[in-house]
Amino acid sequence: MESGKKQSMDSAPAGPPADQTNFGLLRLYFQNSFFKYFESIKGKKTIYFDDGLLKVLSFVFGQMPQSANIDETLPLNAKDQLQPINEKVIFVVRPELDVIRKVIFQQKGWMTGKEFYILYVPRRTIECDEELEKEKIFSEERVSQIAMDLIPLEEDLLSLELADNFSHYMLGDDDNYKVYVQTSINRLETVFGQIKFKFAKGDDASQILSRINQSAIPIDSSNQTNESEIDAMIMLDRNIDMVTPFCVNQTYEGLIDEIFRIQSCSITVDTSIIKPDAQKDPKAPPMEPVKILTLTNDDKIFKDVRDKHFNTLESTFSQKVQQIQNIVKEKDAPQSIDELEAYITKLRNMDIAKGKDILTHHINLAFYINTQMKNIDYQHCYGLEQKIILGEDLKQILQTLENKMVKQYSKDKILRLMCLLSVTQSGLKADILESLRKFYLMNFGYLEIITLMNLQDAKLLRVKDKKLDWAKLKKTFKLINEETRIQDPVDISYVYNGYSPLSIKLIEFIFNQGGFAKTDDKLKLLPGQVIYPPNENEFFGAKIQTISNSDQQRKKRVLIYFIGGITYGEIAAIRFLNKLFKDRKFIIATTQIINGETCIEMMRGKISNNLNLQSLLKK
Amino acid sequence: MDEGGDYTGNSLQTTYIQRFYEKLSEVFSQWIPLEDVYYRNIEFGELEFGKVSEMAKWPDLGFFNITIAKNGGPIAFMLQDKVLMIGGLKDIKSVAAKLKVNNEKLKWACFEFTQDEDLLLITTDGYAYLIDPKTGEFKDKPVLLGAEFAMRPIQDAKLFENILVFRNSINQFYWIPNITQSMVASKFDYIAKLQDAQIHDYIIIPKGTKGASALELLIPDPEEGFHVIKENKGQSMYLRDLSQMSDDRIPFGKIQFMALNSKKDLLALYTEAETKGRIIVMKSNYQKEFNRFDTRLLEANALQWCGNDAPVLTFIDKIAIVGPQQFEILDFRTKTAGIKVMNEIDGLRIVSSEKTYFLERVQPVLLKSFKIASISPSAKLLNAIKSVDLNIPRADEIIRELGKDLITGIEDLLEAATMEHQNITVLKHLLRTASFAKTFVDPTEYDSNKDYKLALQIIEQLNLKHASMVYEEWCQTMVKYSTLQDNELEIRLQEKFDQLKIQIAEEQGINLTSLSFQLGINAANLPTLAMSGGRTGSMMPSGMTQTQQLAHQLGNNIKLNIDFTKLAKIADSRGKKRLANFLIQKEKSIVKKIPFLLEAQQYEEALNFAMEGGDPNIINKVFSEILKKFEGNNKQVIQKAASIPDGLRHLRNFARARKDENLLSDIAIMTSSLRQNQNQVQDMSGVIVSIKNAYENENIENRLDQVSQAMKKIGEIYKDDFYGKTLEEMLVTQSKQRDLFRTFKDQRLVDASLSDTIALLIAGGKEKEKDVKELKNTMKIPEKYYFMMAIRGFAKANNWDDLYYFINHKKPPVTYSFLAELCIEYGKVPMAVEAIKKISDYDEKIPMLIDITQWREAIEESFNGKRMEFLDEIRQKGPAFVEDFIREEMVKRGTK
């Protein structure tokens, strides 16, 4: 017990462990860039934040310092024109025409005499300039940009946090993300040294990699002492595995994301969920209706449980409760003055009160998630997911889907299952597809036609073809483990209750077989081109010789870059790979973090229905 | 600096200018005339011997064995079988301590650099070692060339590029064709006559050189002439003279040394070393003797070529450049004697204990500019500026006289500048003169600060960039003023770019020798040299294709630091469209390139480049410019986009972001015609934008209009039946909803789903039954779906009797599980149980009962269906009393 206590409850060690790359630098850099920019505009200012940036910026900023002298922040919307109180007004926006139109809309409502600035993140574009020019509100000297790209969400997780990237990737309707990915890699190489081995699987990944290779300065062999902090990078297209995003992963973090949508490491929760008892106490002061919870490794409890299977949480949490109780109990044991003093110091260091608070939050969150999962429709849908993965009786699957449709149970969940079905079956027979879509529209309204069209364009819902042989993939990559262990997992299949995510299984295969060349036959089963350096053996062949020596020789760091998004399940699975390959350290980069439902939401896009009821009455 | 008084200032300046011109004239006076050509010996620096503990500050190099890697690579020194130091000018280091071989008595027979600039050492007993000059340590393990050398030790070995030739104590010669591939040696035919001969020299003529069909080894005979041993057996020759091959019958005499020039087409012999010091130059295929000259320079230490131009004899403290009838002596009076020379492609590298030099032939363009009394335009221009500097009013006259030659003069000056890398004063002066001359061509060109700035920059960054600046200056002038045809000028410019690229590559330390070897280019024909680079051009027209090849192989990653866009703009402004196009293609920066192309109205090229770069920001800019240009003529724009792979997708994205319905449907029309040919996939983005636009309308009639247009579009362009029909249904539903809203004023009906509409109507009672039926018929809703929606309407309207009717129905139009689920949703558990019980599939039925905690029924059904495995689940999920139920059920069944 004593040792266990030490392990999990001790205060944080100073600085990042030696085996980590200090990606925190990036965040500091971006933070500084913003603050410097704000400071450069003298006087009181109002800032409009583009909602697509709001979450990620609050993550990057931490807290807004007083010196920035921001006196007012306003949301950037297209509905109400707001009146800024200060003379200087800054728009912090993404370079998208829709967003710029909002800027123009807001600007038009102002009283005169405002100074107007635009800050683009991550870059300024010609088309946005032109849009402003059309309205005659463009002023060269008041336009700036901050090239914010990969945000270090964790020491091993970097994300571009591009809103809607999944749909842009699937529909190919906006290639800006390719430029952002490329520049982000350039930045990584500038800061952390040139990555010697670069791999790509998938058409986008290959295109980006060849552009990087084209513009790269040849590696100067005499300069090899200048060691890079990242040894290799594997870029993967999302579409090598379109099955996993539509599955529900069973990790704690994954389920929190499913239910609360984690955005840049934080969730917004009804206070009643995390403090259910507080409301019952009439004497308690009134609470704020919602609370923002930050979910990072700084929260030691979360760090311990984030990647664990949800069903194993109960025991972990009860252990933690026990630990706290033990410490509290110590207080009552007879003690000398010295012991008491030591005890108080210990208490202070551990911040028991805070720890207990956080633990309570997590227990209540888990309880809430559990209740959600007990919902009969939820269970039916989850059961359906497993049946689809295993390829069971189609008729029953369709019947359940229809039942859920007419009950109008979560259109996102239904579309997610339809996509999963279509992807695993390599499309659906024309008549089945037609009747499913038809009934879907009857129940969820004709405006959903846009979502269906987008899903069709993205080939997520399509007529049957022979592009993908799911049964063969399952067999080749050994994706199903019927005896998966959720308590002390031995493979990545625990993440999805027995299904190993294909994308990560592929990485595992590549490392097991010693390189891309040796995995060629398997890579061919998945869509998209492959690029790997001819000397990949130098990377895959190099093993750390002895374990005793491992102190001096650091692990080989591998950056896995997902283009088109990654799920929390896949993140947990990659983290598990660190246990399977002890001489490697895997780092994850992605364009954004997704789950099945956010994918569907992105494919739906934004539609504004401006119908005026009065117009219905006019003949 | 003190301004001084008027009287001193003026005279000071004069003296300064005079001194400058005196110094400048030294440039020419230092050139070494040899008959009609000139050579110059450029000093490069000194080797810091003092830094190496084993050596004196100025060692007597006569005692050392010295080897030099080609193309300005490292140099190594050996004293009494001990390798002492390796390095280049800046980083020479002692390696003596590092190289410890077990056998202390080791004697080295070979001491040569390979093409990869590793030092190859071979012991007399046949072990070959490679030393990495960067670390000074042995690479890999030694390779044994053959066991026989223990008995008959290797005497010496020479490396000719990658061909290693060596001989043993009885003068049996061996060769290894490519040491980078294998170290297996073959024997040459043995010439018994040579068994005990003293051999001073031998050389290799590689296969493929000037007609040599096989590798040839040339060995001087101890008495006279030389032996040619070919790689193929039994074809050896003994040549006393050229009578076997031509009419020349005059014997060579006793040969001391032989040497091949860089191109390997000329062979020089040094014969009768004790009496005549004769130099014979002949074709390397022995077909013709060119020259024979008795220099009376006796007992030389070595014979080498200076590039391709002249044989050079080396003595202990001097060298002699030998021309057809004359020779010129270069004295190196150093504190200690000993000189080592190395043939390079266009010159000769010379190492003495004090300095290193590069001896080269003066390029014609430099010669005609600086030669005294030269009347070439460039020389005249130099005179003109001199007269300006010295306040003699002759400049105008000179320029006037030059007339059209003015441009040639400027070109030559700049061309000379690209060749002058060593003497910054000369370089500056050339540029200044060119810039001065240009003001006469085009007065707007005059920028009094320009040459000054340029010179300053050059001095500040004496590195890669100055080369680029000089080249750019040259290119600019050529583009502006050259009278050459565009296509010829293109070739000249390309040559310069290639030269510059190679030069920069060398300065970046890319090993060109090994690169050219991989390419299969004969290294001797490499157009440039490492230490100074760029000394090429008119002398070697045959080498150009190899320059191109090499430049090509170097790829796109070497930045030339030349502003191609600027050059292209100049070309364009002078009406040289083709040249502008050629130049802009070289521009790597898309940000520079695109605006140029757009300005020049080269839309397709702009689009091409933008697509190549892949940045939507730039692609969209190009599209918007093209659209402006064609004033909304979408077809033209679409055709341009369609001509480039992926172009239509980018155009579609452009239109989509701007919600441009017209452009989108035009693209769709285009795509659908392409689709039939090219298997292109149609996407629905055009329709999607239309529908989105329709919903943004405040007015329902406008919306319906737009939807019906979208529907038409789908029928005509997309030919998608499903969506065509669906949009039709959408129209029907929305019109119906509009009408219903007008009648009932029920807001819930607006934009409700069909299912909700039906449910609402059903809830509205009998009066709305007609509307439901009408909807069902016009929409052709399938029976099953209709009933599912309608029954849901009953549930919503709390009409459980009607719903119960279906549960009791023997063959209801919907499944029992659907009915059960509805009942569960609305909390009608007993009714749900009734429905569930009617489900035939136990796998579906029992879990449903478990879900709604109907334990007794679940147990009963488990027994009914003999599905005992469910009992475990029931025990697990249910309360403790389920055991009682199970027991009861068992008893019940047991009694039966």
Automatic annotation (TrEMBL), chain A:
Q: Which UniProt keywords apply?
A: Membrane, Transmembrane, Transmembrane helix
Report the transmembrane regions from the record. 558-577
Q: Which residues form the signal peptide?
A: none
Mind listing the GO biological process terms from this record?
vesicle-mediated transport
Record carries keyword Repeat: no
Q: Return the similarity comment.
A: Belongs to the STXBP/unc-18/SEC1 family.
**What is the protein named?**
Vacuolar protein sorting-associated protein 33a
Automatic annotation (TrEMBL), chain B:
Pfam families annotated for this entry? Vps16_C, Vps16_N
Per the UniProt entry, what is one GO biological process? intracellular protein transport
Which protein family is it in?
A: Belongs to the VPS16 family.
PANTHER family hit by this protein:
VACUOLAR PROTEIN SORTING VPS16, VACUOLAR PROTEIN SORTING-ASSOCIATED PROTEIN 16 HOMOLOG
Q: Name one GO molecular function term.
A: actin binding
| Vps16 N-terminal domain residues | 29-448
InterPro entries given in the database record: VPS16, Vps16_C, Vps16_C_sf, Vps16_N
Q: Which organism is it from?
A: Stylonychia lemnae
Q: Which gene encodes it?
A: Contig2882.g3091
List the coiled-coil residues: none
Q: Which residues form the Vps16 C-terminal domain?
A: 562-881
Q: Name one GO cellular component term.
A: lysosomal membrane
Query: What is the protein name given in its UniProt record?
Result: Vacuolar assembling sorting protein vps16
